[in-house]
Amino acid sequence: EEHTLVLIKPDGYARGLIGEVISRIEKRGFKIIGLKITIPTQEELEEHYFEHKDKHFFNSLCEYMSSGPIVAMVVEGSRVVQSFRNMMGDTNPALALPGTIRGDLARDWGPDRGVENIVHGSDSPQSADREIALWFPEMVD
Ligand code: ATP
Ligand code: MG
């Protein structure tokens, strides 16, 4: 079965949305096979978001992502990578459609706050493998 790496970001944790996100994943028929609460370190974020390291928003992204606990999950299911991307909705909460996690639960914080959008999901099976190895090294042989 395919796997994806899901993070409930600090805004999702702080706003009490863990149950809501997990409930949507379970109701969709996907299986949570790894789960932990952690506060990301700068090193973990530089690895996790390596593709964004040179972007103008990278510093604010790291500040946001290390501002409190997150929930990291390994989720299993058929075509779960693309399905969970669809469940998340657009990166920008202002553009995310109703029915998606971001479209229902996130708000547009504007340029000063960066993009706080509740969840992360791997963007490809290759990214999922890399991200699962980062957040759940104990699950990878
Ligand atoms: P994620 O990788 O967290 O699942 P994503 O794949 O939808 O989100 P990316 O383009 O990978 O979006 O951006 C990673 C994260 O960086 C976004 O989720 C958002 O929190 C932040 N971000 C992206 N673009 C911007 C921007 N223009 N300004 C501020 N923050 C941004
Ligand atoms: Mg991404």
TrEMBL record:
Residues annotated as binding ATP are 9, 57, 85, 91, 102, 117
**Its biological function?**
Major role in the synthesis of nucleoside triphosphates other than ATP. The ATP gamma phosphate is transferred to the NDP beta phosphate via a ping-pong mechanism, using a phosphorylated active-site intermediate.
What is its cofactor?
A: Mg(2+)
The UniProt similarity line reads: Belongs to the NDK family.
Recorded name of the encoding gene: ndk
Q: What does the record list as GO biological process? A: CTP biosynthetic process; GTP biosynthetic process; UTP biosynthetic process
> Which organism does this record belong to?
Mobiluncus porci
User: Which EC class is this protein assigned?
Assistant: transferase
What protein name does the entry list? Nucleoside diphosphate kinase
EC assignment: 2.7.4.6
Matches recorded under HAMAP family: NDP_kinase
The record's listing under PROSITE patterns reads:
NDPK, NDPK_LIKE
> InterPro entries, per this entry?
NDK-like_dom (IPR034907), NDK-like_dom_sf (IPR036850), Nucleoside_diP_kinase (IPR001564), Nucleoside_diP_kinase_AS (IPR023005)
Catalytic activity annotation: a ribonucleoside 5'-diphosphate + ATP = a ribonucleoside 5'-triphosphate + ADP; a 2'-deoxyribonucleoside 5'-diphosphate + ATP = a 2'-deoxyribonucleoside 5'-triphosphate + ADP
Major localization class: cytoplasm
Sorted UniProt keywords: ATP-binding, Cytoplasm, Kinase, Magnesium, Metal-binding, Nucleotide metabolism, Nucleotide-binding, Phosphoprotein, Transferase
- Pfam families in the record, alphabetically? NDK
| PANTHER family in alphabetical order | NUCLEOSIDE DIPHOSPHATE KINASE
GO cellular component terms, A-Z = cytoplasm
Q: How does it assemble?
A: Homotetramer.
- List, from the UniProt record, the residues annotated as the active site of this protein: 120 (pros-phosphohistidine intermediate)
Subcellular location(s) per record: Cytoplasm
Tell me one GO molecular function of this protein: nucleoside diphosphate kinase activity
Where does the Nucleoside diphosphate kinase-like domain lie?
1-141
TM ranges are none
